[in-house]
Design a protein that fits this description.
mainly alpha
Length: 223
Amino acid sequence: MTTSETVVVDALPYIDHGYDEPGVREAALAMVEEETRRYRPTKNYLDHLPAANLTAFETAMMKKEYDRLAARQPMDTLSMKRYELPTPPSGKMTDIQAWNECVENSMAQLEHQKTRILNLELMLEYGGESWKIYNEVLVDLLNKVQTQLSDVKKEIQEVNWTRKNQQTQVGEKMKQLESDWVGLVSKNYEIEQALLNMEAEYEAMKRHHEKSKGSERADPVKT
């Protein structure tokens, strides 16, 4: 039963039968389609929300990349210039200052390489343990999520069991009431038939009595 404010579901799927009969599914789909055609939203339910800001988290680098993709330009290749150790230009091969700059650049590159080697050694020594701890955190999160999922499934199962139990009890009561109703209808039918028979018998007796009285008037007894 559907009203403008509430919807009351009167189906009892755990005790009702006949859903698999031919034409039932088609009839249900036709009803859904009919209600869908009659439904017309009266307003936009998102009107109270502000307009979406699609660039709120867009950085300058991201904007640059988006522009590059929109223009279908190729990505810049990785620059290896800072790893090069160039010599002074041909015109400054005898310039001590130019050679000093080249030496300082080489020393800076060596320090970078030394730092990278140190980072690799630290990762080899402690990286495995860090990954183990990270994996333990992931396993712990997985166990918590699985526990939550198990709890939700248990709640769903309990709800379904409660619904089934309630519907089964209601079904038994409905069957009993239906049986009582059938018995009362049958009894009423029997009573009506008995009344009709009594009325017919009464009419027959009445006609017979009237006929007998008529015969007595026609042939009076002489004294």
